[in-house]
Amino acid sequence: MDPWEGAELSALKPLPTLWLVLAAAFLLTLLLQLLPSGLLPSCALFQDLIRYGKTKSSGPPRPAAYRAFDVPKSRYFSHFYIISVLWNGLLLWCLTQSLFLGAPFPNWLHSLLRILGAAQFQGLLMSTQPGELSAAGGEPALSAFLVLVFLWLHSFRRLLECLYVSVFSKAMIHVVQYCFGMVYYILVGLTVLSQVPMDDRNVYIIGKSLLMQARWFHILGMLMFIWSSAHQYKCHVILSNLRKNKAGVVIHCNHRIPFGDWFEYVSCPNYLAELMIYISMAATFGFHNSTWWLVVTYVFFNQALSAFLSHKFYKSKFVSYPRHRKAFLPFLF
Ligand SMILES: NC(=O)c1ccc[n+]([C@@H]2O[C@H](COP(=O)([O-])OP(=O)(O)OC[C@H]3O[C@@H](n4cnc5c(N)ncnc54)[C@H](OP(=O)(O)O)[C@@H]3O)[C@@H](O)[C@H]2O)c1
Q1: Of 111, 156, 219, 332, which is most buried by a Cβ count within 10 Å?
Q2: Secondary structure of 132-172 in the HEC alphabet?
């Protein structure tokens, strides 16, 4: 039997398992929200943990004690991206050093990836011939490198948006959601790095050079990434303009009905763009990386849940809310 096949069968890999569990948890939560309101679990803590921002204030009444666990979205949301820029910047630095200067991964990172059951430790090393590595399913290093660059650029843009574009209200997030968001960006970077083929502590480059690995799906992934990022930025500008006058001065912090760009189709186009960004990374991986598709599935259900709650918020607050507008997916959901 092919050694890679044996490894696939024998190991329950922590990272894919984690993404699968998270995706399933958010799918279940979404399905619960789709139940008729009489059947919906009324547990206040559960509702408190799935809502943030505008949907928190519009949710069921919250016991006063819950406020002790609130942190202001305005100041704390940018922390996710600060963590991501620093952590994923460090991972990118290690990968770049290894790819271009031949520097081995630091011991701590090598051990961490091993603990997380990274793909490179799941049997690739059992292959003895270089050619066997790609045949056995090793991810080209260029794909992982590009995805890590995209993740870093995405985090950096989001950080700049939080600091200079978005206008926040007094909305809150739960401290559990805050901690979850921090861990999320650490795990997502490690997931990308765990796809890089390794030969002990060095990155294994399949073929003669990194550039020789360039394929059509890298170009497609890059174009999709730019396109989705541009739309997400546009949507965040539209949202911030709702709170400004024509001179660009912030005049209130209320929630209004947004119009323009993808808002004509869905209530939360910024969440749809987020999903597209993660799909663009799946494209960059050549569409066949099952671990990354689990990350995409998690993002899908996570963002679909937030979009569903936001859509409900808009429909309950504004009688004139555009009827044709869906929550998350144009014409569908
Ligand atoms: N990958 C992931 O797992 C993940 C998870 C969460 C978020 N995200 C991404 O992070 C980005 C921001 O998420 P978010 O949940 O904060 O988005 P959001 O609720 O749409 O808020 C974005 C900004 O617009 C403001 N805003 C929202 N609705 C408004 C309205 N009707 N009128 C005026 N201003 C409004 C918000 O202020 P206030 O909320 O302060 O009122 C905030 O400043 C999104 O692009 C999302 O996709 C990703």
Answers
A1: 156
A2: HHHHCCCCCHHHHHHHHHHHHHHHHHHHHHHHHCCCCCCCE
